[in-house]
């Protein structure tokens, strides 16, 4: 009788272990199927949390933006609004004489969600020429002003006899806090959105 009970207990344990293994397999399949790749070229919206100026920023300095709306790819949320977007000043130049505008290139490397999730990215500010480089007097989504970027301003006589000299100083890149900026991925990212909590 004891042997029968023992065999019965062993059979129950075997079934339990089999079920657990099956569930683990299902979880693994679900995990793999939930991994998605967001392609390069995908854009998302952010907002500046601090003023950005080519006159004061230095190469290597860290800058932080915030997602101004939920970042979705197709129907999957990648990161919620309010997530931090951290980046680095890659290239910066102050405005100079004669008529040379300031220049600023930022590269963003990480999104940090409100619950602490970290999503590695490679992104820049969206510009018409796709370089991410901003120039003085330029809107973030406009092409660089080629005529004003590095060339001199030719003196032009006016009716009042005044002339614009070649020694006029260019303009710095000036972006105030709370300015919307559209960012674009320069490399694809692969993540598992299920590991991030989006119940905000």
Describe, in plain words, how this protein is organized in 3D.
With 200 residues, the protein is of the alpha+beta class. The chain folds into 2 domains: 1-32; 35-192, Type IV secretion system, VirB10/TraB/TrbI (Lipocalin, Beta Barrel). The protein contains 2 helices and 13 strands. It has helices at 2-34, 146-149; strands at 36-38, 43-48, 52-53, 62-67, 71-73, 76-79, 84-93, 103-112, 118-125, 133-135, 174-175, 180-185, 189-191. A 6-stranded antiparallel barrel has the order 2-4-7-8-9-12. A two-stranded antiparallel ribbon has the order 1-13. Strand 8 (103-112) and strand 9 form a beta hairpin. The protein is elongated, with a radius of gyration of 27 Å.
Series of secondary-structure elements, N-terminal to C-terminal? HEEEEEEEEEEHEEE
**CATH architectural arrangement of the largest domain:** Beta Barrel
**Quaternary assembly:** single chain
* Count of distinct structural domains: 2
Over all CA atoms, what is the radius of gyration? Answer: 27 Å
Percentage beta strand: 25-35%
Instruction: Sketch the major β-sheet.
Output: 6 strands, antiparallel, barrel
Order of adjacent strands in the largest pleated sheet: 2-4-7-8-9-12
> Residue ranges: pLDDT <50 for 5 or more in a row?
11-32, 142-165
Annotated CATH homologous superfamily of the largest domain: Type IV secretion system, VirB10/TraB/TrbI
Mean pLDDT: 76
Write down the overall geometry. Answer: elongated
Distance between the termini: 57 Å
Q: Quick one: how many beta strands?
A: 13
Helix content: 10-25%
CATH topology of the largest domain: Lipocalin
């Amino acid at each position: 009788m004891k042997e029968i009970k023992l065999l019965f207990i062993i059979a129950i344990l075997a079934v339990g272990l089999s079920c657990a293994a099956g569930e683990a397999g299902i979880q693994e399949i679900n995990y793999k199927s939930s991994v998605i790749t967001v392609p390069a070229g995908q854009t998302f919206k952010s907002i500046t949390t601090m003023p950005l100026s080519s006159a004061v920023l230095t190469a290597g300095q860290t800058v932080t933006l915030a997602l101004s709306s939920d970042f979705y790819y197709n129907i999957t949320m990648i990161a919620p609004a309010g997530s931090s977007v951290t980046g680095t000043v890659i290239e910066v130049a102050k405005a100079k004489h004669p008529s040379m505008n300031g220049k600023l290139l930022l590269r963003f490397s990480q999104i940090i969600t409100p619950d602490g999730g970290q999503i590695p990215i490679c992104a820049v500010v969206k510009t018409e020429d796709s370089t991410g480089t901003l120039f003085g007097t330029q809107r973030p989504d406009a092409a660089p002003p080629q005529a004003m970027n590095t060339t001199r301003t030719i003196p032009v006589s006016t009716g009042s006899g005044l002339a614009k000299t070649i020694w006029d100083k260019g303009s710095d890149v000036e972006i105030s806090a709370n300015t919307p900026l559209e960012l674009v991925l320069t490399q694809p990212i692969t993540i598992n959105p299920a590991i991030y909590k989006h119940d905000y």
